[in-house]
Amino acid sequence: MDHSPTSSDPRAARAGTFPWPPVLFVAVFAAAWWLGAAVPLFWPGMDDLAATLIGRGFGIAGIVLIAWSLIALNRANTTVMPHGVSDALVTTGPYTRFRNPIYLGEVLVLLSVAEFSKNIWFVVGAATFAILVTALQILPEERHLQARFGDAYTAYRARSRRWI
Is the pTM higher than 0.70? Predict the structure, then answer.
């Protein structure tokens, strides 16, 4: 279900002015890659078929979740840019269960790359990305959506999860 804006609150104007999530994702990816080469750490995971399948599954799930989320946002005619103005409260598709499926998908991709490359820094990077994107994007985005959509967002928050 898509909801129209209900507020003229100034916080409703936009979630932020800088596109933190893609910048953080690229920075974390590059840092993990560089650290893996410069300061390699022991990979504690298994190197067997099950681990490989789980790692690939995380990557596939992450990519599917990101794509499905972008499709849901496009269908609702609202921005896909994290620093844009939300024209609709999207509560369908992956947004039915998760409030931040794109960011969750990005964490899954980082974890998949960790298993694929046997680079523990991608696991550290996934956790770092989750913490930073929560502080720099999700919390301001939640304030924006609350101010913009009011009770509809409050009800949505009550039935969905921020992460998992």
Answer: yes
